[in-house]
UniProtKB/TrEMBL annotation:
InterPro entries: HAD-like_sf (IPR036412), HAD-SF_hydro_IA (IPR006439), HAD-SF_hydro_IA_YjjG/PynA (IPR011951), HAD_sf (IPR023214), PGP-like_dom2 (IPR023198), Pyrimidine_5'-ntase_YjjG (IPR052550). Keywords: Hydrolase. This is Putative hydrolase of the HAD superfamily. One of its GO terms (molecular function) is 5'-nucleotidase activity. SUPFAM superfamilies: HAD-like. Pfam families: Hydrolase.
Amino acid sequence: MKPYKHIFFDLDHTLWDFEKNSEETLYTLFHEFGLAEFGKFDCDSFYKKYKFVNYLLWDLYNKGKIDQKELRESRFVKTLTGLGLEPHQVPTGISEAYTDLCPQKTAVFPYTFEVLDYLKPKYGLHIITNGFKDVQYIKMNGSKLTDYFKEIITSECCGYKKPDKRIFEHALDRIKVRPVECLMIGDNLECDIDGARLAGIDQVFFNPEKSKSKLSPKPTYHIHCLSELQAML
Protein backbone atom coordinates (compact mmCIF):
# COMPACT_ATOMS: atom_id res chain seq x y z
CA MET A 1 0.00 0.00 0.00
CA LYS A 2 1.38 3.39 -0.99
CA PRO A 3 1.72 6.14 1.63
CA TYR A 4 -1.36 8.08 0.54
CA LYS A 5 -1.99 11.46 2.14
CA HIS A 6 -5.37 12.41 0.68
CA ILE A 7 -8.50 10.43 -0.19
CA PHE A 8 -11.17 11.53 -2.62
CA PHE A 9 -14.68 10.09 -2.28
CA ASP A 10 -17.55 10.12 -4.69
CA LEU A 11 -20.79 11.00 -2.87
CA ASP A 12 -23.87 9.39 -4.45
CA HIS A 13 -23.83 5.58 -4.51
CA THR A 14 -20.59 5.57 -2.50
CA LEU A 15 -21.32 7.27 0.83
CA TRP A 16 -24.86 8.68 0.43
CA ASP A 17 -27.19 5.80 -0.42
CA PHE A 18 -28.84 7.26 -3.49
CA GLU A 19 -30.97 4.22 -4.32
CA LYS A 20 -32.48 3.89 -0.85
CA ASN A 21 -33.11 7.62 -0.52
CA SER A 22 -34.55 7.89 -4.02
CA GLU A 23 -36.81 4.88 -3.50
CA GLU A 24 -38.27 6.37 -0.30
CA THR A 25 -38.86 9.67 -2.10
CA LEU A 26 -40.55 8.08 -5.10
CA TYR A 27 -42.89 6.03 -2.93
CA THR A 28 -43.92 9.25 -1.17
CA LEU A 29 -44.51 11.04 -4.47
CA PHE A 30 -46.49 8.10 -5.86
CA HIS A 31 -49.04 8.61 -3.10
CA GLU A 32 -48.90 12.40 -2.81
CA PHE A 33 -49.49 12.92 -6.54
CA GLY A 34 -52.20 10.25 -6.77
CA LEU A 35 -50.44 8.22 -9.44
CA ALA A 36 -52.37 5.07 -8.48
CA GLU A 37 -55.56 6.76 -9.70
CA PHE A 38 -54.48 6.37 -13.31
CA GLY A 39 -54.69 2.59 -12.87
CA LYS A 40 -51.73 1.90 -15.16
CA PHE A 41 -48.88 1.00 -12.81
CA ASP A 42 -48.09 0.34 -9.19
CA CYS A 43 -45.52 1.90 -6.89
CA ASP A 44 -42.83 -0.69 -7.59
CA SER A 45 -43.18 -0.26 -11.34
CA PHE A 46 -42.91 3.51 -10.93
CA TYR A 47 -39.70 3.17 -8.93
CA LYS A 48 -38.10 0.67 -11.33
CA LYS A 49 -38.97 2.73 -14.40
CA TYR A 50 -37.66 5.93 -12.85
CA LYS A 51 -34.43 4.19 -11.83
CA PHE A 52 -33.89 2.99 -15.41
CA VAL A 53 -34.69 6.36 -17.00
CA ASN A 54 -32.65 8.34 -14.48
CA TYR A 55 -29.61 6.12 -15.04
CA LEU A 56 -29.74 6.69 -18.78
CA LEU A 57 -30.19 10.45 -18.41
CA TRP A 58 -27.33 10.75 -15.95
CA ASP A 59 -25.10 8.85 -18.37
CA LEU A 60 -25.98 11.41 -21.04
CA TYR A 61 -25.36 14.25 -18.61
CA ASN A 62 -21.95 12.87 -17.60
CA LYS A 63 -21.03 12.67 -21.29
CA GLY A 64 -22.10 16.27 -21.87
CA LYS A 65 -25.00 15.36 -24.18
CA ILE A 66 -27.72 16.98 -22.04
CA ASP A 67 -27.63 19.72 -19.41
CA GLN A 68 -28.96 19.90 -15.88
CA LYS A 69 -32.20 21.56 -16.95
CA GLU A 70 -33.03 18.87 -19.50
CA LEU A 71 -32.19 16.08 -17.06
CA ARG A 72 -34.47 17.47 -14.38
CA GLU A 73 -37.31 18.35 -16.72
CA SER A 74 -37.37 15.14 -18.72
CA ARG A 75 -36.87 12.34 -16.21
CA PHE A 76 -40.43 12.24 -14.88
CA VAL A 77 -41.96 12.89 -18.30
CA LYS A 78 -40.01 9.98 -19.76
CA THR A 79 -40.77 7.78 -16.75
CA LEU A 80 -44.51 8.38 -16.68
CA THR A 81 -45.12 8.38 -20.43
CA GLY A 82 -43.10 5.18 -20.53
CA LEU A 83 -45.60 3.74 -18.06
CA GLY A 84 -48.57 4.69 -20.22
CA LEU A 85 -49.55 8.25 -19.27
CA GLU A 86 -50.05 10.98 -21.83
CA PRO A 87 -47.67 13.95 -21.55
CA HIS A 88 -50.48 16.22 -20.31
CA GLN A 89 -51.20 13.75 -17.49
CA VAL A 90 -47.74 14.11 -15.94
CA PRO A 91 -48.43 15.97 -12.67
CA THR A 92 -47.18 19.53 -12.53
CA GLY A 93 -44.53 19.98 -9.89
CA ILE A 94 -43.54 16.35 -9.43
CA SER A 95 -39.97 16.95 -10.59
CA GLU A 96 -39.57 19.92 -8.26
CA ALA A 97 -41.03 17.90 -5.38
CA TYR A 98 -38.48 15.16 -5.97
CA THR A 99 -35.62 17.66 -6.09
CA ASP A 100 -36.80 19.20 -2.82
CA LEU A 101 -37.48 15.99 -0.91
CA CYS A 102 -34.82 13.50 -1.97
CA PRO A 103 -31.74 15.47 -0.82
CA GLN A 104 -33.27 15.70 2.66
CA LYS A 105 -33.09 11.92 3.04
CA THR A 106 -30.23 10.75 5.22
CA ALA A 107 -29.47 7.08 4.47
CA VAL A 108 -25.79 6.30 4.00
CA PHE A 109 -24.04 3.02 3.23
CA PRO A 110 -23.16 0.66 6.09
CA TYR A 111 -19.96 1.57 7.97
CA THR A 112 -19.83 5.06 6.45
CA PHE A 113 -19.31 6.84 9.76
CA GLU A 114 -17.08 4.17 11.26
CA VAL A 115 -14.78 4.36 8.24
CA LEU A 116 -14.75 8.15 8.08
CA ASP A 117 -14.00 8.35 11.80
CA TYR A 118 -11.09 5.98 11.23
CA LEU A 119 -9.74 7.82 8.17
CA LYS A 120 -10.13 11.45 9.19
CA PRO A 121 -7.19 11.60 11.65
CA LYS A 122 -4.92 9.89 9.10
CA TYR A 123 -5.78 11.53 5.76
CA GLY A 124 -7.14 14.64 4.16
CA LEU A 125 -10.66 13.68 3.01
CA HIS A 126 -12.39 15.33 0.06
CA ILE A 127 -15.45 14.88 -2.18
CA ILE A 128 -15.43 14.89 -5.99
CA THR A 129 -18.96 14.72 -7.42
CA ASN A 130 -20.86 15.28 -10.66
CA GLY A 131 -23.99 15.88 -8.59
CA PHE A 132 -25.60 19.31 -8.63
CA LYS A 133 -24.16 21.76 -6.13
CA ASP A 134 -27.55 22.94 -4.85
CA VAL A 135 -28.49 19.45 -3.65
CA GLN A 136 -25.12 17.92 -2.75
CA TYR A 137 -24.63 20.30 0.16
CA ILE A 138 -28.14 19.56 1.42
CA LYS A 139 -27.43 15.82 1.29
CA MET A 140 -24.14 16.15 3.11
CA ASN A 141 -25.43 18.48 5.80
CA GLY A 142 -28.55 16.40 6.44
CA SER A 143 -26.57 13.17 6.61
CA LYS A 144 -23.93 14.72 8.90
CA LEU A 145 -21.14 14.12 6.39
CA THR A 146 -19.94 17.68 5.81
CA ASP A 147 -17.54 17.98 8.75
CA TYR A 148 -15.46 15.04 7.58
CA PHE A 149 -14.34 16.73 4.37
CA LYS A 150 -11.95 19.57 3.67
CA GLU A 151 -12.76 20.18 0.01
CA ILE A 152 -16.02 19.48 -1.81
CA ILE A 153 -15.39 19.62 -5.56
CA THR A 154 -18.49 19.70 -7.77
CA SER A 155 -18.48 19.54 -11.55
CA GLU A 156 -20.63 22.67 -11.66
CA CYS A 157 -18.06 24.70 -9.75
CA CYS A 158 -14.95 23.65 -11.67
CA GLY A 159 -16.54 23.33 -15.11
CA TYR A 160 -15.57 19.71 -15.81
CA LYS A 161 -17.39 16.44 -15.13
CA LYS A 162 -15.90 13.08 -14.21
CA PRO A 163 -14.40 11.20 -16.05
CA ASP A 164 -12.68 14.30 -17.50
CA LYS A 165 -9.27 14.26 -15.85
CA ARG A 166 -9.43 18.03 -15.45
CA ILE A 167 -11.86 17.79 -12.52
CA PHE A 168 -9.31 15.61 -10.73
CA GLU A 169 -6.48 17.95 -11.68
CA HIS A 170 -8.55 20.83 -10.33
CA ALA A 171 -8.91 18.94 -7.04
CA LEU A 172 -5.17 18.24 -6.91
CA ASP A 173 -4.45 21.92 -7.49
CA ARG A 174 -6.90 22.96 -4.78
CA ILE A 175 -5.14 20.89 -2.14
CA LYS A 176 -1.61 21.31 -3.56
CA VAL A 177 -0.79 17.62 -3.78
CA ARG A 178 0.65 15.16 -6.30
CA PRO A 179 -1.50 12.41 -7.89
CA VAL A 180 0.69 9.67 -6.38
CA GLU A 181 -0.27 10.86 -2.90
CA CYS A 182 -4.00 10.44 -3.53
CA LEU A 183 -6.63 7.72 -3.75
CA MET A 184 -10.09 7.94 -5.36
CA ILE A 185 -13.00 5.86 -4.04
CA GLY A 186 -16.16 5.52 -6.12
CA ASP A 187 -18.79 3.21 -7.57
CA ASN A 188 -18.70 4.24 -11.23
CA LEU A 189 -16.10 2.47 -13.37
CA GLU A 190 -16.10 5.18 -16.01
CA CYS A 191 -16.55 8.38 -14.02
CA ASP A 192 -14.64 7.53 -10.85
CA ILE A 193 -12.20 4.79 -11.78
CA ASP A 194 -11.22 5.64 -15.36
CA GLY A 195 -11.32 9.36 -14.60
CA ALA A 196 -8.95 9.05 -11.67
CA ARG A 197 -6.67 6.75 -13.65
CA LEU A 198 -6.40 9.34 -16.43
CA ALA A 199 -5.25 11.85 -13.82
CA GLY A 200 -2.63 9.44 -12.44
CA ILE A 201 -4.57 8.74 -9.22
CA ASP A 202 -4.96 5.24 -7.76
CA GLN A 203 -8.53 4.03 -7.43
CA VAL A 204 -10.80 1.94 -5.23
CA PHE A 205 -13.83 0.52 -7.03
CA PHE A 206 -16.70 0.31 -4.53
CA ASN A 207 -18.98 -2.48 -5.73
CA PRO A 208 -21.56 -3.26 -3.01
CA GLU A 209 -23.81 -5.16 -5.40
CA LYS A 210 -20.89 -7.40 -6.43
CA SER A 211 -21.67 -6.83 -10.09
CA LYS A 212 -19.72 -8.88 -12.61
CA SER A 213 -18.82 -5.95 -14.84
CA LYS A 214 -15.66 -6.52 -16.84
CA LEU A 215 -12.93 -4.56 -15.10
CA SER A 216 -10.49 -3.64 -17.85
CA PRO A 217 -8.09 -2.26 -17.01
CA LYS A 218 -8.53 -3.34 -13.43
CA PRO A 219 -8.89 -0.69 -10.72
CA THR A 220 -6.05 -0.46 -8.23
CA TYR A 221 -8.31 -1.91 -5.52
CA HIS A 222 -11.77 -3.48 -5.48
CA ILE A 223 -14.06 -3.61 -2.43
CA HIS A 224 -17.64 -4.66 -1.71
CA CYS A 225 -18.06 -2.97 1.68
CA LEU A 226 -16.72 0.31 3.01
CA SER A 227 -15.48 -1.52 6.11
CA GLU A 228 -12.77 -3.09 3.93
CA LEU A 229 -11.07 0.30 3.77
CA GLN A 230 -10.02 0.01 7.40
CA ALA A 231 -7.93 -3.05 6.65
CA MET A 232 -6.44 -1.41 3.56
CA LEU A 233 -5.55 2.05 4.86
